[in-house]
Amino acid sequence: MLKKIKSFLYLNIGTLLLSVGVYFFKIPNGFATGGVSGIATVLAKVLPFSFLTPAVLIIAFNVLLLIVGFIFVNKQFGVKTVYCTLLYSGLTYVLERLIPLERPLTDQPFLELVIAMILTAAGSALLFNTDASSGGTDIIAMIMRKYTALNVGMALLIADAIVAFSSFFVFGVTTGLFSVTGLFAKAFLVDGIIENLNLCKYFTIITEKPDEICAFIMNVMHRGVTRFDAEGAFSHRNKKVLLAVCRRHEARMLKLKIKEIDPTAFIMVTNSSEILGHGFRSI
Length: 283
Description:
Blueprint: H1 2-29, H2 35-46, H3 54-72, H4 79-98, H5 109-129, H6 137-147, H7 152-171, H8 173-197, E1 200-207, H9 210-220, E2 225-231, E3 238-247, H10 248-261, E4 266-272
Antiparallel strand pairs: 1-3, 1-4, 2-3
Helix pairs in contact: 1-4, 1-5, 2-3, 2-7, 3-4, 3-6, 5-8, 6-7, 7-8, 9-10
C-alpha cells in the first residue's frame, strides 16, 4: 500500500512539475523543445483562431494521440500514462484560465530556458521512474518503434527534433536555437535525474568479524548479504568478503556500524543506479 501511495504521489508531483514548466516558462517564450507542448506552442502562433490557445491544443492533441495509441499500440499502453496525459492537459488548461500570461515572466530567456528544462525534466523523470509518461510524442515514438526498425530513443528524438526545428521558422533564429538547446539538455537531465532517484550503494566488505556485520545488515537494515571466504595475499590470514546493497540514505549508517564492529575492515563502496531484485527494482 505504501508503495502504491508513493507511486501515486510521484505521478501527481511529476505531472504538476511538467505543467508548471510548460505553461510558465516554455509557452510564453516560444520554446518548442519537442512534445505536444512544442507542437501546441508553434501551432498557436501560426493558426489564426484565437480560441486555439496552447492549452486547448495540448488537450486536443493528447486526446487524439491517446485514441491513436489505443488503436495502434494496444497493450503497451498503461492506465498510468492515460491518467498522467489527461491530468497534464487539464492542469495546463486550468493554469491558462486562472493565471493568463501575455508575456514571459522575466526578460531573461536563457534563465527561463534553464528553469523550464529543470522542471520538465524532473517531471518527466518522476513519471518514467514509475513506468508512466505524459503521452504526446512518446505515443508517436511507440508507434514508430512498432512499425519501423527504429528504437524508442531514436524515434522520440526524431519526433521531437522536427518540432524543435520548426520553431526557427515561426519564432526566429534565437528562439529556435534556444529550443534545440533545450531539446538536447532535457534528454541529459532526464537520464541524470532518473539515475539519482534510483541511486544505491554497493558494498564490498573485507572483514574478520563477518557474523556481527551480517547480523546488523539482516536484522537491523533488513537487507540481504552474501559472504564468501578469502585470504590476504600478504598476511595469509583468513577473512570473509561480504557483498551487500542498500539505499543511499542507509549507506552512512552501515559504514559507521562496520567501523564500530571491525575498525580494521576494508570497505569499498560503489554507486549503482540499477539494482534488480527483491527489495529494489523488479526486472
